[in-house]
Amino acid sequence: MTTSNPASDFVDDGALEDPHLRRGPRGYPLLPGGYGRSTYYTGRPSPYAVRGAGYRVWDDRDLELIDANNNFTSLIHGNAHPEITKAATAALSAGASWGIPNLYEWELADLLLERLPTLDQVRFTNSGTEAVMSAIRIARAATGRDRIVVTQGGYHGTSDVALAAGGPAYTRGVTAGVTRDVTPIPLNDVQALRDAVESAPDEYAAIILDLLPNRAGLLRITQEFVTTARELASRHGIVLIIDEVISLRLGLQGLSGAYGIAPDLLTTGKTIGGGFAVGAVVGLADLMSEVDPTRAGSLPHGGTFSGNPVSMAAGAAALRLYPESEIERLNTLGDVARATIQGNLAGSGWEIRGWGSLLRAVPEGSQKVPEDLQHKLWWESYYRGLLGSPANLLSLSTPMDKGVVDDIVDRLTDAVWAVAGNQGARRD
Ligand SMILES: Cc1ncc(COP(=O)(O)O)c(C=O)c1O
Fold this sequence. Notes:
Blueprint (H helix, E strand, L loop, with lengths): L48 E5 L2 E4 L4 E4 L2 H4 L8 H12 L9 H13 L5 E5 L2 H16 L3 E5 L8 H6 L10 H5 L1 E4 L4 H10 L4 E6 L13 H14 L2 E5 L10 H6 L5 E5 L9 E5 L1 H4 L20 H12 L3 H21 L5 E6 L2 E6 L7 H13 L2 E2 L5 E3 L6 H19 L8
Parallel strand pairs: 3-13, 5-6, 5-7, 7-8, 8-9
Antiparallel strand pairs: 1-2, 2-3, 4-10, 9-10, 11-12, 12-14
The structure holds pyridoxal-5'-phosphate.
């Protein structure tokens, strides 16, 4: 491999004060466990990001990394894209947020609906979690039913219902009642899906699907499973929610378009905020009317910062910079990268999965990857100047070209082999 090892001297030498250890007046770390987000955790005290530019990010030791984490796939245009920065700054200078509607909301809604022509209306939230939570509430209100079908091991954020999808490991603090109302179906088990829905068709409010569930090993959902979900939902008056919080980046109409499936509600977030806090429910008018405040008895949806001008303006700029040609260019780079990595990993016991601009190395055949193994690969990647998500989900961004992606391929290949060690028969 051609890879230089830019971070080879990155070792915990104790030279710097670890800010994770900063304590408050009563002696506790200022943040629980030293972290502001549990999802940052990679098994050891984490380096800090200090600045970014394009596809690169620098940490607090001035180590330069290729940013393929992109804040968990959000930064479709990488760090500090000048046009997004300009749009966000202009909105910020005019007042960060107001207590009456703003025109930026209309602009972003317009751009989203242009891409999603089978849907009618948008309601913005501050995160994907909130979008999913709101979509489920809308589905329940519209159907007058409680139960939800999810795919086992899927991730839809951290609302109570969404956590129930993750199984017992995720449901501490979630009431038994919430858990009872959620039916997890093994991924791609069409018969189990049919059996569950048809055993109580009048009890289900929604089927919620992520078409490329990262938490379940970035395995693709089969066309048959998706088509069956659509058929069952239509036949029984169940709302089909497609969760495109991550996957919207993969096509002009997200992965729904690629599968030729028309959701009743689509939830999204991440890329549509240009790097700022965002989420959205996009849906059919009769369902979205549940949050129409001019309608008597509508649902109480709010959020002090929902639809704030900065997120909306940055998001609109980000979508304009991401036409079909860019989506295809990034997807092709990802496809080629995966093909090369797959060859590089032959004999290692690992495989590469993904779709277009999203990729992830996992042990062959696995669905749930043990956390310590994920963290091991994260650090081996980090040592080589490659920043992924803690689960090693890598996403490409528009500042990347073939040369950068080739670097990602080399660094990831080396990192996986370092983890695979003697588990595989090392190539070359
Ligand atoms: C499919 C899916 N749904 C929902 C969410 C939650 O989004 P957020 O982290 O913005 O709350 C995520 C986050 O990664 C996700 O991947």
